[in-house]
TrEMBL record:
Domain Glyoxalase-like: residue ranges: 11-196
Name the record gives this protein: Glyoxalase-like domain-containing protein
PANTHER family: BLL2707 PROTEIN, GLYOXALASE-LIKE DOMAIN-CONTAINING PROTEIN
Gene3D superfamilies reported for this sequence: 2,3-Dihydroxybiphenyl 1,2-Dioxygenase, domain 1
InterPro entries per the UniProt record, alphabetical: Glyas_Bleomycin-R_OHBP_Dase, Glyoxalase-like_dom
Organism lineage: Eukaryota, Fungi, Dikarya, Ascomycota, Pezizomycotina
Amino acid sequence: MSSQAMQIPILDHIVILVSHKDLLGISSHIEGHLTLAPGGNHADGLTTNKLILLSDGVYLEFIAFFDDVDPERRRNHRWGKETEGTVIDWAFTLPSESDFAAVQQRFQNADTSASYTDPIPGGRTKPDGTVLEWAVCTPKDRQGNAVAPGSMPFWCLDRTPRARRVSYEAESHLTQHPNGVKGLLSVSIRDPDEGAFNLKGAYDAIFGGEWSYDVPSGSTAGKRAFSLSTGEAAIKLVFHGSKTGRFELLPGLVVDIESLA
């Protein structure tokens, strides 16, 4: 494998910001649609989460800031100024942290002024006391300033086994959802600032070829496609499952379920 080669990015998770009150009551909202998995508190002490595990290994992260967090610390957080009740970000992963070097190598020659930070350590402790560690790489512009969350994915690279962080196989009952959802069929991004640093060039560097992603389970079902367009900023998700239709992920946030046929 050459230094320019790269494994297809693996879709890791989708980040949905909610208020702490809504996070505490999320189970009552999704009852009858989705099965909730426990999350935990993040190592920085600012945020806590709960998860929805999908059988393809991708997960949805409902994340909230604690109400008593210092306002200045929240503002300085990557997601501190984002709108609650919306999909705000998403993450890719790779089999090994060392695989990320190929991404950074491609960005050196990419037709874009965006790039990624070097891996930054992170982690959280699960309710059962299990410590999880990972490294995060976030997008930045030519001046080193953070790129708006959601316009480009960040990378979550595990330093402890991913199976500890996302127990979708060991606890497969948590991936069984009343509405039949099994995985994510596609992700599409609308971004109003596409011209700021040539997002198309950035995504060419991210994917290194066709704009498609793998999923942690290794399943090849579905198109697993990514698309980019300009317009009012938004992240759109389309799920696949044993049933088709629409459901309300959060009040006012409606998503589609399609079949794989």
